[in-house]
């Protein structure tokens, strides 16, 4: 007979209790999939809760490809599970052998699920975290809304990989959002065109002066990125002729997709910024406008761009691309000063030199200069403590909503960093369980050492 658990704050309803896990990971995206794999491999009984029907989050459901490089000379900075993901993708032609950062989001869905199920973790799809229940300072249940109603999933510990810090918010820890002006980064709704003659497009790009990244499977073209004046002219003529608008061109970027030579992926349209990028009223209005923009861009490509005369809209991302929303206040917040000074930490669990990358405005500090260091030292690290929310005993937060200031988040949010944060969180959870200690007492140096011993490049 199920007992009833009283949910706090959000739902005020009673949810039947179900399951009993060592750890629950909320959000099966870039960080969450890896966190669940790492925790299950370390021996924890793990449940991963995901609102959609596939893993990958932004990488798959928001169609975000390729993975950005860590930009550290001579190093991948990949965590060991990230390396495994890449190997699996290569084995099924889901990534480009010339540079496996370029992957097919559909292949990624399959690969992540295979690795997750092999790890022994359980996954619950079609289920959204609605709330949390607590006893004192410890979270006890994730209150989840599925098609059949509310349920309360019980666990000893939790990792929030929702991207929006939804579990952290429900647990009552301190949350930040947006930059100094209060605005979040710009959102985007990505889409794909299919039926493309990529060889013709590639020949065209070369004919207008593109010198690199103009051939499948590593093709990349963008408006006003300084690759080709002739390409920019063709696109801006589309605007002058009334086929495209300023918004359509605010971020106009095209990538090929390995294994699918008839399709291309648009990192467009960019839809502007807001003081609450995940407010459904804002996202609904913007996504309605996005469909109109996608329709205009598709029409322009069909009519004007060589290789696209038979193209169709192949997919519109089922998940909105949110670059930045809520972030936790952590035991050690990573700041822009840490990035600019290439700070390293004893408990560093991610190494990267990806730059500050803020979409949607003028918040980037153009005058800021990075420290002068030898090339081999030109990287910064994320400390384990950035995953530990202040004031929580049994909650970690990994991925784009971990403990960063607005500026540092813009550098730390890329996929390779999110995967490494996920793996560190899974490893830390196993240490906390073994030593029966709260997450803030886990020795981050041991997490770093364990990641290295498993083959992570830290
Ligand atoms: C438009 C755009 C372009 C980008 N371009 C690049 C790029 O080219 N290369 C790169 O490396 N990075 C890029 N990024 C950044 C990167 O893709 C993301 O920051 C990163 O993937 C985030 O990973 P995450 O695990 O933190 O969140 P996500 O991958 O977004 O995962 C969050 C998961 O949680 C689930 N979820 C959310 N709320 C709930 C809930 N209440 N209950 C259950 N499940 C929930 C979501 O469905 C999702 O699966 C881009 C981001 C955007 C938005």
Describe the overall structure.
This protein is α+β, with helices and mostly antiparallel strands. Helix content is 30%, strand content 21%. It contains twelve helices and 19 strands. The strands form five sheets. Strands 1, 2, 3, 6, 7, 8, 9 and 19 form an eight-stranded mixed sheet that branches. A hairpin with a 7-residue loop joins strand 13 and strand 14. Helix 11 (415-435) crosses helix 12. The radius of gyration is 22 Å and the shape is globular. The termini are far apart. The mean pLDDT is 95. It binds flavin-adenine dinucleotide. Residues 26-32, 49-52, 57-59, 62, 64, 66-68, 128-129, 161-164, 166, 188, 190, 267, 321-323, 399-400, 413-415, 418 line the site of flavin-adenine dinucleotide.
Largest sheet composition:
8 strands, mixed
Fraction of residues in helix: 25-40%
Task: State the end-to-end distance.
Answer: 48 Å
Find the structural class using helix and strand composition.
alpha+beta
Radius of gyration: 22 Å
- Bin the strand percentage: 15-25%
Mean pLDDT: 95
Attached small molecules: flavin-adenine dinucleotide
Principal-axis shape equals globular
List the uncertain runs. none
Counted by DSSP, the helix tally is 12
- Total beta strand runs: 19
